[in-house]
Queue: 3 jobs
Job 1
Amino acid sequence: MASALAADPGIGRVIGVDTVPPSSLTRDGGALLGRTEFVRIDLRTPDIAQVISAEDVDTVVHMSLVSEPAKSRSAMMEHNVIGTMQLLAACQRSAMVRRVVVRSTTAVYGSSPHAPAVFTEDTEPVDVPHSGYAKDAIEIEGYVRGFARRRSDVVTSTLRFANLMGPRVDSPLTRYFSQPVLPTVFGFDPRLQFVHEDDVVEVMCRMAVEDRPGVFNVSGDGVLLLSQCVRRSGRTGLPVPSPAFGVLGMLARTTGLVDFSPEQLALMSHGRVVDTTRLAATLAWRPKFTTAAAFDDFLQSRGTGADRTAALVDWLSGLATRR
């Protein structure tokens, strides 16, 4: 995203803030980042306010939402929640900031057997997530709403992304689909949605240069059943009872292979589907990748590729269902 923004001649400066330099900066001298300037700052400290004030920043894009703990759950929470609080406090004190864009997640809706078939932006979650990544995202969105009320002169946009998928995405879900055997919850075949990393960048860039206030769901069109994902991946599915799936998740976290949090386990049981009509109408935009295409691109990047036979079976299954 920094590279895309830096390539826009209409943008004066692009300043990237993080605790460590991005790998592209250290690997090739920053060629991938273009004219992006990097500043090493921990968002949990008030130092971010100095950058926003000194550099006359007018647009802030907050993308640093960590989905799994690198060291501990408390450190993850501090990074997500405390870091966002410090950033929004700095924006509130700035007279120059006029646009704030925040990355969130559809995990705020939770995954529950009592949930509606499709979530809109105005749907209240039936079972509010009480732990991990989803809980952090809910708290973050609460602080964003408070900021928007206090600074009504600032255009505030919140983007709830479905699970990211693509060649460069490294997440608990992509690592799950990279395993040779994929445990599934016996008796459940959840509906899943993915958004391709390229579409994520495009939407974020649009929001960074346009005044589009509000909350928006972002996902590729269509859905995939978990069973369809397993067939497309060419892996072996292993249906196990729900308690055993939870035990496997804990063992996977212990070994460091896959960090499956409780909300991820719920997703693999009940799934989650969101409506993206509001985003399409506001931006007059559709994602380049459907959910299936995003997943296939991820598989091909791992040397697996989409299974054409499985795709045909999926199509025939859908045809039989419609009849």
Job 2
Amino acid sequence: MVMTESVSSETDSGHAHPRPVGVAVPTGGLNIRVVATGMLVLMALVFVGARYYQDVHPAIGFIRAFAEAAMVGGLADWFAVTALFRHPMGLPIPHTAIVPRNKNRIGDTLARFLLTNFLLPRLIARKMQTVDVAGAVGKFLSEPGEGGGRLRLGASRIIADGLGALDQQRLGGMVKSAIADRLRELDVAPLLGQALQAALADGRHQPLLDAMVKWGSKTLELNENLIHQMVHDNSNAIVRFTGLDESISNRIVAGLSKLLSEMAVDETHPLRIRVEEGLAKMALDLQHDPEVKAKVAKVRDELLENKAVKRWLDGLWEQGRTALLKAARNPDTMLAGRIGELVTQFGAMLGEDAHIKRTLNRYARRAVVGVVDSYGETALKLVSDTIRGWDAKTITDRLENAVGDDLQYIRINGTLVGGLVGVLIHTVDMLI
């Protein structure tokens, strides 16, 4: 049935779908190219039959005129459609095989079209003003029932693949170097001073002093013979002869033992108070004395250069990397527990806090516009270069597959419209 206007067909759901202009041919799954060629062959057969029986009745002349003009229209449109993609019948006719001969120009034109109509920063910025990136991210994070599985799976894949792809030797060196650099930048002395000062204020140093006193008592008990020997060696012959050296050494040991025993039971013992005063002065010196701070910094640097500390950093990095990989390969643990709660809370905050949403959306808009402004031409050059890299057959096949059915409808319409024009011309000829 010939149709001169575009019409719409409705599916069972009531949605309209446009049909090609000119004619609607129910193909039933047949190849439209076969339908178009079949119509051309049919018109040729009708023309032969009408010419043979044209003297039977005057109306046969109209059928012959229709078939003759339909063949002309169908052949003309076949030539036009074929000439777009190849030489008709393999003949190198000028201005045919248009797409293969101009594929480079097509690629350049397509890239310029995209650049001037889609990838302009001002157009992207205007479009991004209507996109609620923060709201979408917040909903994705705060609704684990819908997006949690995808989020866990995506996060685990990104982390695991990223760690697996990186050079572990170089990455480990970078991490360990970064940790060491941060430790070198850390001013340890004031921190130690503040910690010591806080411990003294809360009395947390008393157990340490008790342990030191107990250690001193134990050490004295184990080294009594050494004290006796020192006194004996440093006494003259008369003292040794009279045995006073042993008496002196016993008094020294007894006196020290008594002193330590008193310190162990009396927290207000003068010697303990002197120790506390010394610790308090050390806490102040660690925080304010440049000389003490320099000494602590020197010790810190020497420790970081120590081989044992470097081995400890190596082990720390390897343990952290192994634990991270183990967690990353198990999506169920990536957002479990406290981390999952924090992610959900963050998503809810993005959905509720207008200021944060506005800030994040503005950042996203600027980021996208910046990427387009910086890399838009590079991306379009990639499009152009990709099309240039295709061979003629590839681009011909892809374009023909994309618009092939529509081109065959052009042939069908050309056949039918040509036939109608032939009937009109034959009618005018009969009237004249």
Job 3
Amino acid sequence: MSTDLGTTDLGTTDLGTTDLGTTDLGTTASARVPRPAQKRAADPAAADGPAADVGRASDRGARIAAVVIALVWHLAIGLPAVLGAWSTLAAPTVVAAGWLAACALGGYAAHRLLHGVPPPALPLAAALLTVDAAVFAAAGREQLFAAANWAWTGLAWFFVVVLWGRPIRWMIVLLAGHAAIALAALVGDGATAPADLTRFTMYVYGTSSLPVAVFTGAAVIATLARERADTATATLAVRAERDAAERAWADRRARLALVGGAAEQVLAELADGRADPGDPFVQRRCVLAATRLRRLIAESDDVPDPLLHELRAAADLAERNGLPIELIAIGTPPPLPVEVRRRLADPLAAALADATGWARLTVVAGPDEVAVSLVTPDGQGPGTADPPTTPAGDDQVEHVHERDGEIRWTQTRWRRP
């Protein structure tokens, strides 16, 4: 047993060895609230915790938006333009094949992205740049800056989907390659006049700025969301630790008051000479105070089954005072509040203080009910007055006491409401 009060035996009135000053009542177990990790995992998507969940939720919304923009743009703007300018394209079959290839590559990347699996960025980026070069070469000079050359406006959104979650420099490199392909097409078609170069610059800026803004903005928003969640988690953890410390402090004060009430009065009377250690009534009060003190101290022990631990503490003290006692436990009690455990154990501890000859303590537990019974011979000692009983149904914890002249039976019962 983790709490040894062998030197605090009030039942034998050995008050010289009773040192309440050394009773460790400040060991009330308080809930430990884990602080949030100071360093986030290298891969935010693989991190755990509320902050990571918030970041993933924000990132998922941005991913859905990017996929919808890319596919809708490709279907609603690129396809009608290609079909409408079919006869004016230099190689319409190549442009259409490139459109289908980009749709397949983008759809594959979108499928993986929406299922939380990053797409293979390098192979898909290389394939998209190949499609880009083929479409620019097949569009011809007449449709070079027209909507039929869908690679100008639509391909950058597929870059966003393919490179999602990668560093921004990857996006910049891919857009630079896209601009180099477009410039090569201008030179190949002889569109090198100042007006053509100006249109080229405007197109590069206009078709790249919005995808880059979405790409970087989504990453920044997800990061800010994680940081705000981290801050909120840290604040709640500090508040929870403060509340736990305040509860532990209040519990220690309450425990000190209970222990003081259990032994202070009888010790004061003995010290003043107002109580006779040989008086059976005084001896019973000492035994009862020692039993309650032992059980109260056992409340602070961190054990898997607190109720049985507290009952064993009371039974152990009775056995040390010379009472043969048998403890039988059937089932495992569910987690019970301290106040419920006290109300289950205190009447049994009081009955043990009166017991002579022998005692049998039985605990029968289930998920929704716990019954604790004590059977002892029915003596005529100083504490044989019947304790008050609690009628069934009036409270969660019922207390019943019966005697028939031969045995005394005391039971407390808790039922889940």
